[in-house]
Amino acid sequence: MNIEVRKATKQDMPAVLKLINELAKFENEPDAVEITVKDLENDGFGDRPLFECFVAEANDTIEGMALFYYRYSTWKGKTVHLEDLVVSEAFRGKGLGKALYTKVIQYSKQQGCKRTEWVVLDWNTNAVEFYKNSGATVFDEWRTVQMDEAAMDSFCDKTR
User: Fold this and answer.
1) The domain containing residue 85 runs over which residues?
2) Does residue 12 fall inside a structural domain?
3) What is the mean pLDDT of the chain?
4) pLDDT by residue (tens digit) across 115-135?
5) Does residue 131 have an active-site annotation?
6) Do strands 52-58 and 3-7 pair parallel, antiparallel, or not at all (unpaired)?
7) pLDDT in tens, 90-113
8) Which of 13, 81, 117, 155 shows its CA 20 to 30 Å from the CA of 134?
9) Does 155 map to a domain?
């Protein structure tokens, strides 16, 4: 099998969205994806792109992707946040995920970033072990905090 990892193009966004939806199903949130191909095209390829993306092709078909963006750490400076790395189910365990992961880490280093970070679900033990074995630290003490749109609306209403 021939694997190629490359920077995504605007034309790749339908395949990227398909992988995002596959990830949502894997994470038991099949109806959670609200974005569209148009959103990905506009947000990733406009004058001020909000993200960058690598795709992994197996035999000339996109079967994996890694979507990331820059963050700024008040302690470290410029960092990369890996939002999602997903490989289609049929191609898991064939090296695509590792190739994408490697590309993101190498890219972060080349860009002068002091850290690459991401979030992993605690029940995804294969991913947790892979990350630990690669040298990454998986923190138990830190908790991800989110406020969804309804909660933001409520909060803003209360603070007016």
Assistant:
1) 3-118
2) yes
3) 95
4) 999 999 999 999 999 999 999
5) yes
6) antiparallel
7) 999 999 999 999 999 999 999 999
8) 13
9) no
